[in-house]
Every structure is written in structure tokens, then in C-alpha cells.
UniProtKB/TrEMBL annotation:
Residues 40-94 form the GATA-type domain. Keywords: Metal-binding, Zinc, Zinc-finger. One of its GO terms (biological process) is regulation of DNA-templated transcription. GO terms for molecular function: sequence-specific DNA binding; zinc ion binding. It comes from the Eukaryota. This is GATA-type domain-containing protein. It comes from Collybia nuda. The lineage of its organism: Eukaryota, Fungi, Dikarya, Basidiomycota, Agaricomycotina. Residues 1-23 are annotated as: Disordered. Residues 1-13 have a biased composition (Gly residues). Pfam families: GATA. SMART domains: ZnF_GATA. InterPro entries: Znf_GATA, Znf_NHR/GATA.
Amino acid sequence: GGGGGGGGGGGGYPPQHQPYPGTMSMAVVHTDDAATKLSDRVRRRCFNCCTTDTSTWRRSNLSPGKVLCNKCGLFERTHSRPRPEQFPHKRGPL
């Protein structure tokens, strides 16, 4: 004896056009607190320059419990002071 079966179906939807793709689809919270658990909704933010995009996150020594981006973390470690927001691309009195 033997048996058989089968069947199938399918359906397609027309592509839906969103006015702002990917915007506010999920509210993402950014935190500069090192103790905060990260998730798909919680992302890191640099305590110093507020960037959310960096190759690696570093813990702040000057502000314990805060996270810094790679650049701010390295600057702080090297100079023992926060990385300045304005950079000397404009010559002016220091």
C-alpha cells in the first residue's frame, strides 16, 4: 500500500509604502547608564558626546557608571578629562 498527499497555496501582498521607513516602528531608548540592560529597544549612547554609533563602548572613569564611545573613552583615558565637544577646527582663544 501507499499513500499520498499534497496541496499548497500562497498569496502575495502588494508592497506597502511607508512614509518614513523604519522610523518610529519601535521606540528605541538610548541610555548612557552602564548598568542598564541592553535589548532590542535599549541602546547605548555616549555620556560625553551623545553618539549612538561607535566601534566599541567604554566605561567612564571620570563619571562612574556611565558609558563612553570609543573616541571619548580613549580621550578620557589619555588626558584624564572629558573629550571636548568643540574641536579646534576653528582657531580661537582656548
